[in-house]
Amino acid sequence: MAGFLLIHGSCHGAWCWQALIADLARLGHVARAIDLPGRPGDSRPPEAMTLALNAEAILDATQGDSGVHLLGHSAAGFPISAAAEAAPDRFARLYYLAAYAPRDGLSMIDMRREQASQPLIGAFGKTSDGLAYALRPGKARGLFYHDLPPDLAAQAEARLCPEAIAPQATPIRLTGRYQSVPRCYIRCTEDRTIPPAFQAGMAQTFAPQDRYDMPTSHSPFLSDPAGLAALLHQIAGAN
């Protein structure tokens, strides 16, 4: 049995993991999810949001724990890496699910600019204060949820929220502390958000036995939670 902590990507929240948590439980694992700072109900202003604060939320959620299997989706690749840098002994493995796998000295926005294609151009707009961005209406299904039933995609889109820009514009600092934590990459081969070819390039920094593929959109936790749970069960059991 493994204990998973699941970290959502941009504009999402802990709500997106409900089906996966249930499927992992059926396989004998304990999984939970947290909201990163800046979700609805957080009274702190957008200017208070930082990459360090996101990592701190993960560390707070794992205080006193060890052997945590920490999974980050999409933009959450950065805060899970920062948390592992701060407390490497706390984590059994890092799981990058269609996620940005950071390189020392770069921000997430720096890495996104390296992509040969840019599917998100025109899909987001800045909020009036310029401190966050939000998905434009009608864009979510094509980018995140194209393999979901229309009603489920609509329900998910209705729960999306603005995302603070500063955490994603902050360069990360990684040392051997981060490198000491085992890690794996799960590429989504039908992804329309982070191009699969770019995901494959990031995964090249992982050992061959730690690279996996799922034939899904950017959101397998909604489109194939049972399949994702089975893969996580396989990975956790083999390591």
From TrEMBL:
GO terms for molecular function: trans-permethrin hydrolase activity. Residues 4-230 form the AB hydrolase-1 domain. The keyword Hydrolase applies. Its EC number is 3.1.1.88. It is an enzyme of class 3 (hydrolase). Keywords: Hydrolase. It comes from the Bacteria. This is Pyrethroid hydrolase. The gene is pytH_1.
